[in-house]
Design a protein that fits this description.
The protein folds into 2 domains: 97 residues, no CATH class; 122 residues, no CATH class. It is 30% helix and 15% strand. The strands form 2 sheets. A 3-stranded antiparallel beta sheet has the order 1-2-3. It has a two-stranded antiparallel ribbon with strand order 4-5. α2 packs parallel to α6 and α5 packs across α6. The protein is globular and about 65 Å long.
Length: 244
């Protein structure tokens, strides 16, 4: 399984699937009936409005549903910032990477069940990752030539690093452009006709691009998290998600 680029629309859900609505959904008047605190839901509005005010995000539509009822549904910002056209609940987005939040929710379900430790090294679940090296570039003092080498991890990559893309992993081209990304390309890391287990074997033979926890870079981290889920649950990821 391979995962694509960042989503333009942010959807927050309390379960793995949000029901389809025949018309624009309406949030219920008392979200506490669904187990949500109204004041805490309001923090979501304030957070996204801050992104808009700071020009970090043009706009967003956020929906939270539980038991086929909508607890929270807000549109903030603009769907056309230059023309100041407000965002609406029925705005149409180009959207991708929705397997990422779904995979992460599946992982958090295992955390809630006490089967997965967020702070644990990934190597606890994927032993192949125990001694991964980190790619480094050094300038030769005399010639000024850039040389590449590897060094040990300062600290192990954790499950949480996978969730927040601070694992040191990257993407191959065209998303990734650095030397490690080129190694991903040459090793055909992301091949649709191979399993996650086969992908992990390939990654275990390549260096990380960054020290775990030090750099955020969009990456195959969620793919690796999917394999962690398979190991912990004892099921293929697609079967686990279908049965969730």
């Amino acid at each position: 399984m391979t995962l694509g680029k960042r989503a333009c629309l942010v959807l927050l859900a309390s379960f793995l699937a949000i029901p389809a609505f025949a018309q624009e959904p309406r949030a219920i008047a008392h979200p506490e009936e669904l187990g949500f605190a109204p004041d805490r839901l309001e923090r979501i509005t304030k957070a996204f409005q801050a992104y808009v005010d700071n020009n970090e995000l043009p706009g967003a539509v956020v929906l939270i549903a539980r038991n086929e009822k909508v607890a929270y549904f807000k549109a903030v910002g603009f769907r056309d910032r230059e023309r100041k056209v407000p965002m609406t609940g029925d705005s149409i987005f180009r959207i991708a990477s929705m397997t990422k939040p779904i995979t992460t929710v599946a992982a958090m379900t295992l955390v809630e069940e006490g089967k997965l430790d967020l702070g644990a090294p990934v190597s606890k679940y994927l032993p192949e990752f125990k001694d991964l090296q980190v790619n480094v570039e050094r300038k030769e003092l005399v010639t000024g030539k850039i040389e590449t080498a590897t060094e040990p991890q300062k600290r192990p990559m954790t499950v949480q690093d996978l969730m927040r893309h601070t694992s040191g992993l990257v993407y191959g081209p065209p998303i990734g452009t650095g030397p490690v990304s080129m190694l991903y390309r040459d090793s055909t890391v992301s091949t649709r006709d191979e399993t996650l287990a086969q992908m992990i074997t390939k990654l275990s033979m390549l260096p990380l691009a960054h020290q775990p926890g030090e750099v955020w870079e969009y990456s195959v981290s969620t793919d690796v998290l999917g394999r962690v889920i398979e190991v912990v649950s004892g099921m293929d990821l697609d079967r686990l998600l279908r049965n969730a």
